[in-house]
Structure prediction request, 482 residues.
Amino acid sequence: MPTRSPYEDEDAAPPLSSRPSAPASPAGGGSARPPSASAGATPSSSPQPVPSPSPTPTPLRFGVCGVLEKIDELETELGQIGIIRYVTSGVTYTAPPASVQPCAWLKHPRDPQRYECLWDVRNSNNLLQLRQAIEQAVQSGEIRQADSPVGDRLDRVVYLLAQHIASLHREGWSAGLICPENVFYKDDGSEVFLADLGFYWKPARGEPPWDAEPGRPEWIEANWTYAWLYSRPPLQQQFACRSFAPPVWEKQPFTPPTPAEDVQTFARLLWWLVVGNDRGPQSLTPFLNLLHAAIEGQVADMADFLAQLERCPPSSHFNRARAVSSRGPSPLGRRTVLLLGAAVLVIGAAGLAYYLLSRTPPEGEDRKIIIPSPEEFAQKPYEEQMKYWRDTYNPQSPLTDEQKATLAKLRCNTLQKVEEKHDELVDKAFDHAERFNVAREFKKLLDDVKLLRSKPVHDPEVEKKEQLWQEIIELRLLELEA
Prediction:
């Protein structure tokens, strides 16, 4: 957790406790079970979980709460190890539906700002720890193996979390912004726990301690971690907040996040989980294409997201070797695949031979290269002009006069195109959703400039401009990656 106080927008705050870097093990080997409505578990002390409103809770949104303080022995469940959190003044809690999240928070009987949760921290981690494990597996190459434990855990946790959010939507709740350190999961993939869910701000008087609408990008403050969510990092004290009627909210009529916004936020979270903090251009894997579509609002709901996750699991981003099915392909299937592969190779070889033979002039005849005149070349679209130079230019052969003339024209056209596109792309880069496309367009311009610079210099002034623009574009790409 950060050392900086998370209560910067509050007049008074409870003292902060230090949280250990790793969960402590329960003393005495006691079994710490999350309370379940079906199991009828009764705490050893009088406080009971706050019941969920019936039949459906008011839609929730996000405000300012507190952070997870430490993992220690609980006072509401003596002898049990769980999570302890402190909240700010005016914050209360409503338990989510037990059918979705059975592990509820208990309010301390003597400290109104202290809540305790009987979450079994043994054999459990959070999403931040999962991200760190993914980084190590990527560096070692282990995640690309078909039997990678980290890849299996990534797929299992992401799918389980998506199911959890879909269940919340069916109950009329929203997940809102998700803080990775406050999203816990069992290592065996049996359960996830959103520690922020259910807390909300309900003061007797006054206004909420935020300026913009919580749960949305303009509310997020800078100078914190998790910049991957919305260009600017969100506060760590995120939690669900119920919407109230005037007069409390007459100055700020907030609306709760919609399920569609949950899909977009969840996609941003997964992008960070798989890619990390790198905002530079990424390879267009099917999984990143899915996330990009979800961030753009092209995925209908969480049920649709779940269906696409089954076809395109997160670990597929790492080109991981995966079996066709849990049982593996049948012998007939393997033979069929081998025969099809052999047929493709034969057809490809025949096509390549025909292409090479058709390009080879008969013996005794000179090879004729069709070179467009500068006037004809200027009429072609820019992409065709660049394709001509990529396909026909041979650095071992001297340029003809016609080629020199067309190349001179193309270099001027390219510099003009770069100058026109540069400011437009810089403006688009301020929109986080467009940063990927901006980086891709900058990369394409850079490739064009490098291609032309590989040709013979025809004008020192033009060469100087090309070098300058190459350095500028490389700098823009570095800025996008920072």
